Amino acid sequence: MKKFLIIFLCLFIVLTTVGCGGEKPEQAVKSMLDAVKAANQEAAEKYIDYDKLTDQEEDGSFASKNEEIYKLILKNLNYKILSSSEDGDKATVKAEITNIDMKPIMDKMFSDAIALAFSGLSDEQLEQKFNKNFEKLINNKDNKTITNTVTITLNKKDNHWKIDVSDELANAISGNLITVQKEMKDSFGGSDTSDKLDEIDSWLTEDIWNKGFCDINWYTYDGTDSSGDTIDIEFTLQQLDSSIKVKAEYDKYMGQLKGEEYNELKGIWGKLSAEIDSLSSQIKNNPPKASDESTGVDTGKFEQYSDAFSDAINKLE
Q1: Which of 66, 109, 113, 186 has its CA 20 to 30 A from that of 161?
Q2: Domain 2-101+144-187 has CATH 3.10.450.50
Q3: CA nearest 250: which of 265, 239, 235, 238?
Q4: Rounded to an integer, what distance in angstroms lies between the CA atom of residue 267 and that of residue 285?
Q5: Gap between the Cα atoms of 121 and 162, Å rounded
Q6: Residue 49: exposed, middle, or buried by beta-carbon count in 10 A (0-12, 13-18, 19+)?
Q7: pLDDT of residue 20
Q8: For residue 252, is pLDDT > 60?
């Protein structure tokens, strides 16, 4: 009987020790990544702050449009655990995480979004178009993948491993989507909307009109610039061409502006941007000649749209 009690006690101690140990850090990471891939929010939240990973609303609701987008991104997730180390209530797991490279997809999305933004569609119609386009792009069988090696930090709370959602981890899981967002923000100089719109308005007035179309038309009228001074027309054309190349950045910026308050401004910009391209093409096809008005361009629409653009900015302010 005594021997039986000793064996039973030993068995109890072994089972209790195993039970207290719980799952290993690498298993916690695997379970989390499997849940994320399946877009299983409930299962994933056992290990991570799912709101932080997927950028949900502050009230905890997960907008259906975002949910569908994340499902499309996360379904392509794959991973490989490389190593794991544990020190008391802290652990690190090194893993290779692979997903579709989102950069070329988002670049194409923004390129297409520019045309759609100036189409006059309602916000609801635009959202439907964006989502349909995104689904088509992400399901392209020729999409390339990207692999990030990530060191994942875990902390044990109440005998359960919790995973820290770092930007590095979120970026790897989303196929570099965090990096793409940061690059976009940096490309816009981090300025607020008002500053950026003033910058665009100034560019239109100074670089495109005063030093460009206006001087060129005066040159075709009397052989001088708009101030009556001598002008190097070849240099002026080169400067105008360089200035117009900046428009691609501004097209992208205007396309991503959200909110009904910007609808009028975006509509005007669509006409203005197209008119700049049209005038530039006319000038290249029929280069300006001194005192030859047949080589000039009709800037009436440009002036109309440019004035309207400035007025619309002033309304916002």
Answers
A1: 66
A2: yes
A3: 265
A4: 28
A5: 45
A6: middle
A7: 41
A8: yes
Own/partner pairs, 40-47, CB within 8 angstroms, 24+ separation: 46/160, 47/161, 47/162, 47/163
Q: What single letter denotes the amino acid at residue 129?
A: K
What gap in Å lies between CA 119 and CA 112, rounded to an integer?
Answer: 11
pLDDT at res. 66: 63
- pTM for the whole thing? 0.54
**pLDDT score recorded for residue 210:** 93
Domain positions in the chain: 2-101+144-187, 106-143, 193-316
Q: What is the CA radius of gyration of the chain?
A: 29
pLDDT > 90? residue 234: yes
Residues 28-38, mean pLDDT to the nearest whole number:
94
Element at 150 (helix H, strand E): strand 145-157
Which one is predicted more confidently, 190 or 219? 219
3-state helix, strand, coil in the chain (%, to 5): 65, 10, 25
Whole-angstrom CA distances from 42 to 25, 45, 50, 53, 67 are 19, 5, 9, 13, 14
Supply the pLDDT for residue 54: 62
